[in-house]
Amino acid sequence: MRKVFLFMDTVINKVDAKGRVSLPSDYRAIVKELETEIVCYRSLSLPCIEGCLEETLDKLATDIEDSTDFFSETQDNLTNLIFGDAKRFTFDSTGRIMLSEKLLKHAQITDTAVFVGKGRKFQIWNPQNWQKEEERIRREVLKNRPVLKKNKEE
Amino acid sequence: MRKVFLFMDTVINKVDAKGRVSLPSDYRAIVKELETEIVCYRSLSLPCIEGCLEETLDKLATDIEDSTDFFSETQDNLTNLIFGDAKRFTFDSTGRIMLSEKLLKHAQITDTAVFVGKGRKFQIWNPQNWQKEEERIRREVLKNRPVLKKNKEE
DNA sequence: TGGTATAACATGGTATTTTATGGGATTCAA
DNA sequence: TTGAATCCCATAAAATACCATGTTATACCA
Fold first, then answer.
1. B4 lies in some domain
2. HSE (CB half, 13 Å, CA atoms) of A44?
3. Looking at the domain assignment, is residue B50 inside a domain?
4. How many domains does chain A fold into?
């Protein structure tokens, strides 16, 4: 039994006419072992789909409760945006999930999708968009390398 | 049960046409005893593959979560770069892992690879590149030797 | 200490399994 | 009843497990 569960790697899969995509087998293994489900929602800031385990969203709910006021507009807005958008996605016997029109449109995905591991989360991108975004991030992080180091060493 | 786990030594192994390489047996022993897995990714600054234990990356994920905000751009950038590139590598009954095209290309490895221990991490190099890098490092350390000594004795 | 037996290892090759993906059948709901 | 969602089957390719062999390192004994 493994001890660590991380979404990793970058894999490109096809999206068929019905909107079906194979979830990367590594991701499936995590879902199965933890006996949980995948949840997907539109990224708040980027043109991509974001996914995580149900547990992770549960933790987020707690964090939002703890860090914002029950009656605050912030809490209202956040919870509406996130949980109003999120949805469970179970995969079939061949390992595919069916992404909704809403999600596909937001990420501008048509016939190909890129899964990008983010540790506790992952993202699903249009391949061209992801390529641009990756280049942007590399430039950004290399420029600010001291920041990365600082975080690591603390 | 041993108390110390360090990747050490420098081992040269062949890479076959499928990209298979024997993981040094010492490394395998660590993975087995800790009941964990190896994770590899492209070095951010050098033309080599870097590897560590899954636990190490898990700790990093936790550190990033703790030191940056769930919605922050910093967290986004970092996790994309690190976990998007990293991948689990399990070895078969004969002790081999299968390196991906992406990794081999980044490290300019074709038919031979050098494993270099780095303590908690290790690196995999193209033999010629490693030779040059080692010479560079030796020169560098000799140049700064007084500083090194000073630190030790204080 | 020297020599031999034994075990571990690296590595080439092959067999088996898993995975991605297209297509069709069945079920469900509006 | 029609469109959509779910399930099931088929297939090719890729990943993985397994087997065999020569070599090196280790353990053992005289």
1. no
2. 13
3. yes
4. 1
Burial letters for A110-131: b for 16+ Cβ neighbours within 10 Å, e otherwise?
A: eeebbbbbbbbbbbbbbeebbe
Strands (E), chain A: 10-14, 20-22, 38-42, 49-53, 87-89, 96-98, 112-117, 121-125
Q: Which helix (H) or strand (E) holds B82?
A: helix B73-85
Task: Tell me if A138 and B81 make a contact (CB, 8 A cut-off).
Answer: yes
Rounded to two decimals, the pTM is 0.91
CATH code of the domain containing A87: 3.40.1550.20
Q: What are phi and psi of A122, to 5 degrees?
A: -145, 165
Asked if A101 contacts A19 with a C-beta cutoff of 8 angstroms, the reply is yes
Q: Which amino acid is present at B20? A: R
CA of B25 to C1' of C7 (A): 14
**Closest residue by C-alpha to C1' distance, nucleotide C19:** A25
Identity of the amino acid at A135: E
CA distance B85 to chain A (A): 5
Residue A142 near chain B (CB below 8 Å): yes
Report the DSSP pairing between strands A49-53 and A121-125.
Answer: antiparallel
Can you tell me which residue has the tokens 């991509």?
Answer: A48
Task: Report if residue B82 sits inside a domain.
Answer: yes
What are A6's two structure tokens?
Answer: 């991380």
Structural domain boundaries, residue A103:
10-143
Location of structure tokens 């993981």: B23
The tens-digit pLDDT sequence of chain A (154 residues) is 678 999 999 999 999 999 999 999 999 999 999 999 999 999 999 999 999 999 999 998 999 999 888 998 988 988 998 899 999 999 999 999 999 999 999 999 999 999 999 999 999 999 999 999 999 999 988 787 645 544 444 3
